[in-house]
Amino acid sequence: MAHKFISEINPGETVDDIYLVKEAVLRSTSRGDLYIAMFVCDKTGQLNGRVWQASEQIYGEIPKPGFVHIKGRSEVYQSSLQIVINNISVIDASRVNIDDFLAHTDKDVDKMFAEVKRIVGTVKNKQLKAIVDEFLADEELMKKFCYCPGGMSMHHDYIGGLLEHTWNMLRAASAILPLYPEVQADLVLAGIFIHDMGKTEELKYDTAFSYTDSGQLIGHITKSVLMLHKKAEQLAAKGVQIEGTILDALGHIILSHHGEYEFGSPKLPATAEAFMVCYIDDLDAKMNQVTRLIEEERGDSNWTGWQKPLETKLYRRRIE
Amino acid sequence: MAHKFISEINPGETVDDIYLVKEAVLRSTSRGDLYIAMFVCDKTGQLNGRVWQASEQIYGEIPKPGFVHIKGRSEVYQSSLQIVINNISVIDASRVNIDDFLAHTDKDVDKMFAEVKRIVGTVKNKQLKAIVDEFLADEELMKKFCYCPGGMSMHHDYIGGLLEHTWNMLRAASAILPLYPEVQADLVLAGIFIHDMGKTEELKYDTAFSYTDSGQLIGHITKSVLMLHKKAEQLAAKGVQIEGTILDALGHIILSHHGEYEFGSPKLPATAEAFMVCYIDDLDAKMNQVTRLIEEERGDSNWTGWQKPLETKLYRRRIE
Amino acid sequence: MAHKFISEINPGETVDDIYLVKEAVLRSTSRGDLYIAMFVCDKTGQLNGRVWQASEQIYGEIPKPGFVHIKGRSEVYQSSLQIVINNISVIDASRVNIDDFLAHTDKDVDKMFAEVKRIVGTVKNKQLKAIVDEFLADEELMKKFCYCPGGMSMHHDYIGGLLEHTWNMLRAASAILPLYPEVQADLVLAGIFIHDMGKTEELKYDTAFSYTDSGQLIGHITKSVLMLHKKAEQLAAKGVQIEGTILDALGHIILSHHGEYEFGSPKLPATAEAFMVCYIDDLDAKMNQVTRLIEEERGDSNWTGWQKPLETKLYRRRIE
Amino acid sequence: MAHKFISEINPGETVDDIYLVKEAVLRSTSRGDLYIAMFVCDKTGQLNGRVWQASEQIYGEIPKPGFVHIKGRSEVYQSSLQIVINNISVIDASRVNIDDFLAHTDKDVDKMFAEVKRIVGTVKNKQLKAIVDEFLADEELMKKFCYCPGGMSMHHDYIGGLLEHTWNMLRAASAILPLYPEVQADLVLAGIFIHDMGKTEELKYDTAFSYTDSGQLIGHITKSVLMLHKKAEQLAAKGVQIEGTILDALGHIILSHHGEYEFGSPKLPATAEAFMVCYIDDLDAKMNQVTRLIEEERGDSNWTGWQKPLETKLYRRRIE
Amino acid sequence: MAHKFISEINPGETVDDIYLVKEAVLRSTSRGDLYIAMFVCDKTGQLNGRVWQASEQIYGEIPKPGFVHIKGRSEVYQSSLQIVINNISVIDASRVNIDDFLAHTDKDVDKMFAEVKRIVGTVKNKQLKAIVDEFLADEELMKKFCYCPGGMSMHHDYIGGLLEHTWNMLRAASAILPLYPEVQADLVLAGIFIHDMGKTEELKYDTAFSYTDSGQLIGHITKSVLMLHKKAEQLAAKGVQIEGTILDALGHIILSHHGEYEFGSPKLPATAEAFMVCYIDDLDAKMNQVTRLIEEERGDSNWTGWQKPLETKLYRRRIE
Amino acid sequence: MAHKFISEINPGETVDDIYLVKEAVLRSTSRGDLYIAMFVCDKTGQLNGRVWQASEQIYGEIPKPGFVHIKGRSEVYQSSLQIVINNISVIDASRVNIDDFLAHTDKDVDKMFAEVKRIVGTVKNKQLKAIVDEFLADEELMKKFCYCPGGMSMHHDYIGGLLEHTWNMLRAASAILPLYPEVQADLVLAGIFIHDMGKTEELKYDTAFSYTDSGQLIGHITKSVLMLHKKAEQLAAKGVQIEGTILDALGHIILSHHGEYEFGSPKLPATAEAFMVCYIDDLDAKMNQVTRLIEEERGDSNWTGWQKPLETKLYRRRIE
User: Fold this and answer.
1) Do E217 and C315 touch (CB under 8 A)?
2) I need a labelling partner for F163 at 20 to 30 A (CA). Which of A183, B223, F33, F237 fits?
C-alpha cells in the first residue's frame, strides 16, 4: 500500500501508516496527566503528534529518532494541523521504504554513475587513471558515493545528490574543456571525481541528514585528501607507485575547490585546473540551489522570500 | 620591411624604425646642456631613449605621446639597455602599422564575430531577437566591438579582446545550457552578447590602452544598460515595442554580472540567468588571466611571481 | 466621520469602519468548519481578524490586499487583541481616505516643493538649468516626486518622504556651499535634485510600501541615471544639446552617492561635488532615522532597543 | 632677505640660505674618501645635498635633524637636481623663520579663533558653557590649539590646520543645526570645539610634523577625553560641579566621532548629536583633502593620480 | 529556609517564596477582566506569572523590577510551566539574599583577592608599585572589584567574575613570564590588574546585570584609563609624581587589550607587554566561555548548539 | 679560519672566502664586453658582486644558487658596497659550514629536544602516547624536526626554529594547564607536539629558506594531518589500533590551530583543547616576532619602522 505522505494529510482524516518520529518528549498537563509530544515526519514535511494518557513506559519504548506505526486522527489545533495518536508501535528500519523518508534525486542513479565512469574513463595519464580506477574498484565506497547527499541544505541535499553533482560537473567540464586547450583535462576530470568524496564520511544519511562527529571535526575537504592518500598507499602496496607531483596537483585541486579561505579552503587555487574545478563546482551548486528555491517557493509571487546566503530575493517570472 | 621589435633589440645595434614615444621630458645636464629623455615603445616593451644636444624646438616637435621615426644606436647604461637617438622625426599615425604597437588577439576576428552572430542568431524570443539585431545592425558599434580590448590589464587586455571574451563566453554558454534546462537560454545568450558592450565607450585604445573620462566616471556596467535602453528607444521609434519586463531581465543580468557589490555591481544576481552569466564571465576571465600569466612568466621556475589579485603564486609545472 | 485607528481600539469595543486587509487565508477548524484569518490594518498598526462560519465564496470576494468595511467586535485572545468580524464588504480604493492608511510627512508638501524649485532655480549653468527645468516640466513625474516615500524602512519611509529628504538636502547644501567655494554649487544642487528620482519607479506606494519588480531588478541608482539620459534626449529632440561632460559629471554624482560599493554604488565619489552630495545624503538620512527611532521608542527608558543597522542602542536622555 | 625656496632652485645656481637638514649620513667613496649625504629641505620640498671631502668632525656637528646655513651650488646628477655644499654651519632654531619650513593655513588665524569663540559663545547650557570657558581660559592650550596641524597627512596637515578644521566645522554646524531642531545644538557645538583637542598632545610640529610617543601610544581621541575630565576636575576644584551625564554625553561625542571601530573610535555614535559631529567632521576633512589633492596635482590631466585612501583617482575638469 | 529555585519547581506545586519580578504588565481578558502578567525570576531562570482578578492598585504596587513574596501554585499552560499567583507582597531588597538571584563565582573571593594582592605585590618598579597600591588602597573600589561581574554574557558573567578573571590572568602571566625574559613583567602585571577596572563603572549588578548609561556611552576601556589618570593625580597631590612614559605604557596596554579595532580597542598592541596582556585576556575569556558552554548544554549530545560568537558548535565528548 | 661575514666587510678590503651565490646573470657592457652580476650572500646579508671580463663558459660554471670561493675586493659604487671579483671557483656544499649561511636558534637544540621528550612523556592516554612515541621513534623525521625553521619570515625563521617554537609552546602549556583543570592536558600536549610537524615537508632549508612545491600546493596544516594518519596506519600495521575519535580530536586541533579561516585553517576551534593550542601558538609566535623586530631595529629611535602584518610601529623604550 502506498505511503500516505505528510503533505497529503487533510484535517479530520484517519491516519494509519509508518512515520519517522523526531524529538519525542514526555510532558505533564496542568492536571498532572502525562502526555507525549513529538514530530511525525516523512520526506514531505512534519506535523506535531500527541499521545494523551501516556506513561513513562510508553515513552521509553519510542525511538528517538526512529520509525513507528501510528494510528490516530488529524485535527486542527490553534490553526495548525496535528495528529492525535491512539496507538503507536515501533517498526524496524529494515521494514521501512526509506525512499518515503529521505528526499531522492529525480535522476536515474545507474545512468548517472555509468556516465561518470564513461567520462573519467577518458583520463589518459596512467597514474591518474590508476587512482581513478582504485576509487572505482572500491565497491563499498562507490555504493556510498551513489547514495550520499551532496550537502546538508544548500544544494543537492537529497539522496544521490553527491553523484548528481559530480556527474553534472563532469558533463560541464567535458563541454567546456575543448575551449581551454591549455588546461590539463585529465587533472580536471580526476579532480572533479574525487573533490567531494569525503562527504561520504562527513555526512550521516540513514534516517535524516546530519554531520558525523568526525565530519564536523575534520570536514570533507581534508577527508577527501586523506582518502586520496590512502588509495595511493593501497596502489603502492600493489606496486603501482604514484608520484608526489601527481598527488600534490590533485590534492591541491581538492583543497582549493571552495575558492576562498572563508569557505573553508586552506589553499587558494594556484593552477588553471584548480580554478576550473572551483568555478564549475560553484556554478553547478548555484544552479541547483537557485532553480530549486524558485521551484519550491509556494504561491505565485514574482519573487521568492529573502535568501540569506544569496543576499537577495530570487525573481521567478519567466519571459518565455 | 618588418618592424624591429623592442624585445628583439640587442646591445650595440643600429636602430632605424618607427616607435611610439611616451613621457618625453626636457632636462639639463650638470653642465647646463639640454637633453631629452623619453620612452621608446612598441607592443613588446619599452626602452629609455636619450637625445643629447637637444633644444626647446626639437622637444616641442616631439608628440606626447605619438609616433616617431628614430635613428640611433642601442647601448647598455648602468646595466640597462637604452637608445641614443641621433635623429628623430614625427610620423603621422595613419602611416603606422598600429598592430606593431598594440597587442592583438591571436584568434581570427572575422571567424569569431561570425560565430558570435551565429550563436546569438539562435535566440528565439522575438523581443530579445529584435534587441540583439538592433545591436548587430549598428555597424559603427560592431566595428568597435570587434576591436576593443576586453580590459585594461587583468584579462583579454589586447585588441579584439572584448570580442574574444564575448565569443568564448557564448561558446561556453552554448555548451553548458543543455545541462540546465530550467535556465532561459535566450536571456543568457542575449545577456552575454551585451554585458560588456559599454567597454567600447569606457576604454580608449587608439595608441595605448586607457580609460576615457566618461568611462572612469560612469563605468561600463552602467554604460551597457544605457546602450540597451537607447537601442530599445530606437526600436520603439520604428514601432517595435520592447516590454519593461524584458528590459529589466536583461538589464539585471548586465548590472549583476560582476557578482559582488565590491566588484562594482550595483545589484546581486537574482535570477538563474544572471548567476549563469556571472559565473561564465568569471570563469572565462580567470582562464585567460591564469593561462597567460603562466605563459608569460620568464625563466623556468615551477612558480610564477606573486599574483596580488589572485593572492597566490601560480604553479606552472604540468603533469603531462 | 473620523477613522477609528487601529492603535485606538480597546478590548470589548464595537468595530465599524474601513480597513486594509492583508494576507487573508481560508482555514478549517478541528471540527471541519471553515473560517478566514487575516490582518486588519491602517497606518497605525494591524490586528488579527477572524471571520467564523466562512465559505469559499466569501473568501473569494475579499481583496488580497485591499480595502474592506468591517463590522465586528474587538476581544482579547491569548493575550492579544483580535477582531471577530460579523460582516465584511469590499470598498473601492477611490472611496478611501488613503491618508488613514499610509504614513505621511508632517511637513507641508506644497511649501517644500516651492522651496525645492526656488533653490534649484539658482542653478546658473545653462545646460544644468535646462536639465533641471526639463524634470520640473514633467508634471506626472513631479506629482510622483512629491508623493513617493524616501525609502522602504530606514529613513523618510512615508508619503512625501522623497520630497522632504530632497528638500532638506537642498537646504543643507545651500547652507554649507558658501564654506567651500571650490565646490561647484550648480552641480551639487542639480545632483541632489535628481539623485533619488529613480525611487519614483523603484517603489510602489498605493496601498502599502513595497518594491516594484523593476525596482528590485534594476534599483533606483541606475534608474535615476536612465531618467537623466532620457531627459537629455528629450532636450536634444527640442534642439537643446547637453554635452557628455555635463551628463557624466551629473551621472557620476548619482552613481556614487551611496559612497561605498557595499551600499550599491557602482562608482566611488571622484569629485568634490560627488563627495558633498554623498555626505549630505547620509547626514540627512541618519538624522531622520535617529530622531524618529528615538521618538517612536515606547516607554521611558534612557535607551531605545538595539538598532541593528546602526550596531548600537540609541541614547534618548536629553541634557536640556 | 626672502628665503630661496627649494621649489625655486634651478640647475647651475648658487645656493646661500638656511635649510632644514634631514637624515644626514657619513659615507666613503670607492677611493676611501669620506663624504656626507643629506636631505636639504624646506616646506616646498627637498633635494639631495653632498659635502665632499668631509670628516667625522664636520659630520658630528651637523644637527640630525636641524637648521643649517648652506653655501654651494645646484647641479643635475643622474637626471636629478642636487646641491654640492662647500660650506655648512649650524643655525639656532630661534633665528629661523619657521614659516619657511612648515606649511601654514592660508586663513587668518586671529579671525578664525575669534569666530570660534563667537560660535561656542552661543552655548546656553550652563555646565557646557563652563567647560567651554575653562578650555578657552587655558591660554597655553589655546595657543597650541591655534598652531597645531589638523593631521599628519590626510587633511589640514599644516600649521593652524586644527583651528581651521574646528572653525569650519563650527560654521557648518551653525548653518545646518536650524534644519534639525531635535538635535541639541549646545552639545554639538561644545563637542566640535573639543573633539580633536587631544591632537595638541598627539602631534609634534616644531620643525616637522610627527607623532609624539604619547600620541602614538594613546591617540588623540582618548587624550581629548582625558583633557575634558581634567577640565571638569579643575572646575570642581573651583566649586563648579559638572554632572556625569554632561561629561558622558560630551565624552561620547568625542569617542565616537570617527564613526567606525576600524577608524579608531572605541564607541559608535549613539545620539543624534554624535552622528552630526561625526558627519560634519568627515565632510570637512574630505572637502579639504579632495580640493587640495586636486589643486596640488601637477600637469593638466583631467585626473589626479590614484588616491589610495579614497580608492579612486579624482576628476579635476570643471564644468564652469 | 532555603530558597526554592525556579529550576526546581515542578508542575502542580505550591509556591511560597521570594522572587524577582520583571516586565510586569496589566492586561484585560476578553471578558474585560484585568490581570497582571510578569516574569518570576531568580538566578536559575524565569517563569511566566499571572495574577487573575487584578486591579490598577495592585499593579501599581508591584516593583518594576524588584523583589516580591509570592504565594500561588505552578501549573502547565500550553505546554509551559507558569505560576498562578494568589497573593503578592513587596519585599525590600535589604531583606533578600541577593545570592539567590545573581549567579556567583564558585571560587573563594577572599582567597582570590589575597592572591591578586600577592602577585601584584611582586611589582618592583616604584611608580608602577605606587599606582597599584593606590588602587588597592581604594577600599570602595576594591569592594566593587571583588563583586563586579566580568561581563554581561560572554564570559565570567557572574558576581565575582571580574576578580576571578583578573586573578586567573595574573596567575597565567606569572606562569608564562619566565619563558619570555625580554617582556617587562612589572608592566604586564600592573596592566592586567587595571585593564578591566572600568567595568566596575560600566556594569550595574544590584538586581540583574545591565550596562550603566555611562558605561554604554563611554565603555570600560576608556573608563579604566580615566581611573588610572585619576589615581595618578591623587598620587601627585600626595607628592608622588608618575612620569608620562609610565602612564602611557600602562594606558596603552589598557587601550589595546581587545587586540582589534573591531572589538573596541582604539589602539592596536605596539609593545610586547600589550601583546601578552591581550593574548592572556583572550585565552582566559575563551577558556571560561567554552568550558561553561560545554558544561551548561543540556542533554547528552556530543555537541552543543550553534555558538554564534564562535561560529561553530562545540564538541563535548572527552577522550578520557 | 673563521668566515668573514658579509656584515663585517668594509669598503676597500680584500675578500677571500666562501659565499653563497644567488641570481647570477650574464650581461654585456655598452662596449659589448660581457660581465657577470650576482648576489654574494651569507646569513648576515648580501652584496652585489661583479666579474668583469667574463665569458659564457665562466658563467656556465657558476651554480645558481650554490657555494663559491671568491677572491676580490670590496668597493663603494653609487653609494653601495659591492665586490669586484677577480677569481671565482665552485665549492661543494659538503665542504661548507652551513651555519655560516643559515641563521640558527641561539638555544641549545639537544636540551630543547630533551625537554620536549620529557613534557610529551607525561601524556597518559595510551593511544595518544602510542602516537607520540611513533613520531619520536621516527629518527629521520625527528632530525628534521630539530633542524627545520619555524617559518619563512614571520617568526622563528631560523634553523631549529620549529623545535624552539614547539618546545616553548609545550613549556607554556605545562605552566597554564593547571589553571584550567577541565581541559584535557594529554590532547593539548600531543596536539602541540604534532601541530606544525608538516613544516618539515613544507619548507626547504638546505641553502636558503623557501617553500617546497608540495608545501606550497598542500600546506603544513594538511601535511601534519596526513603525517598523523600515516603514523596511525603504521601503528595499526603493528597491531596498535588508534580509534577514530582520538584521530579526529587530534586532527581537529591541527586543522584549527590557525584560529581563523582567513589564516588557512579549514576548521575553527570547537574544543577547549583546540582553543588553548591556538592561543598558545599565536602568543608564542607573536612574542618571538615582536621581541625580535624590536631587537633588530637599527638606530636608537623609540619606535621601529611600520610593521605591516601588525598594522603598527612597535615601541622600544623600556621603563626599566
Assistant:
1) yes
2) F237
Terminus-to-terminus CA distance in chain E, angstroms? 40
What is residue F99's predicted lDDT score, i.e. its pLDDT? 81
List alpha helices for chain C, DSSP H: 56-61, 109-120, 126-136, 139-147, 161-176, 185-195, 199-202, 213-218, 220-237, 244-256, 272-296
Blockwise average pLDDT, block size 10, chain A, 320 residues: 84 89 74 79 85 83 87 77 90 86 92 98 98 98 96 88 98 97 98 98 84 96 98 96 97 97 96 98 96 81 89 91
In the numeric block, which cell numbers belong to residue D20? Answer: 632644514
DSSP state of E242: P
3-class secondary structure, C3: coil
pLDDT tens digits for range A71-109: 999 887 655 678 999 999 999 888 888 888 888 999 999
Q: Is the pLDDT of residue C1 over 70?
A: no
Smallest CA–CA distance, residue B164 to chain A, in Å, is: 12
On whether the CB atoms of residues A61 and A90 are closer than 8 A, the answer is: yes
Closest partner CB to B28 (pick from D11, D313, D315) = D11
- What is the separation of C-alpha F163 from the centre of its chain, rounded to a whole number of angstroms? 10
ipTM, 2 decimals? 0.85
10 Å Cβ neighbour count for F48? Answer: 14
Compute the average pLDDT of residues B82-94: 90
E44 CB-contact burial (10 Å; exposed 0-12 / middle 13-18 / buried 19+) = middle
Nearest to C253 by CA among C232, C276, C233: C276
The alpha carbon dihedral of D206, D208, D213, D215 has a sign of: positive
Using 50, 70 and 90 to split pLDDT, how confident is the model at E31? low
Cβ distance C276 to D282 less than 8 Å, yes or no, reads no
Which pLDDT score is estimated for E255? 98
Is the CB of residue E268 less than 8 Å from the CB of residue E259? yes
AA identity, residue F265: S
Q: Cα(first)–Cα(last) distance of chain A, in Å?
A: 40
Residue D143, helix vs strand vs coil: helix
Calculate the alpha carbon distances from D86 to C65, D3, D12, F179 in Å: 91, 19, 14, 69
C175-207 as b/e, with b when 16 or more CB fall inside 10 Å?
bbbebbeebbbbbbbbbbbbbbbbbbbbbbbeb
Number of other residues whose CB lies within 10 A of the CB of residue A142: 17
Asked if B62 contacts B12 with a C-beta cutoff of 8 angstroms, the reply is: no
Say which residue, B75 or F146, is predicted with more confidence: F146
Note the pTM of the prediction, 2 decimals. Answer: 0.89
pLDDT, tens digit (0-9, with 9 covering 90-100), for B231-282: 999 999 999 999 999 999 999 999 999 999 999 999 999 999 999 999 999 9
Q: Report which of residues F9 and C153 the model is more confident about.
A: F9
Q: Which residues have C-beta within 8 Å of that of residue E274, sequence separation ≥ 6?
A: E191, E252, E253, E256, E257
Task: Retrieve residue F273's grid coordinates.
Answer: 583543547
Compute CA B15 distance to the chain's CA centroid, rounded to the nearest angstrom: 29
Chain F interface with A: residues with Cβ < 8 Å:
213-214, 216-219, 221-222, 225-226, 229-230, 233, 244-245, 248-249, 251-252, 255, 261-267, 270
Select from E30, E210, E263 the residue whose CB has the most chain C CBs within 10 Å, as the one to mutate to test that interface: E30
Sign of CA dihedral F117, F122, F125, F126: positive
Predicted confidence band of residue F68 (pLDDT cuts 50, 70, 90):
very high
A28: nearest CB among E11, E302, E313: E11
Cα–Cα distance measured from residue E286 to residue A106, given in angstroms and rounded to the nearest whole number: 46
Residue F25 in contact with residue F37, Cβ under 8 Å? yes
Report residue A310 CA to chain centroid gap.
20
- pLDDT score for E22: 83
Report the alpha-carbon distance of residue B135 to residue B242 in Å, rounded. 14
Select from C28, C30, C31, C38 the least CA-distant residue to C72. C38
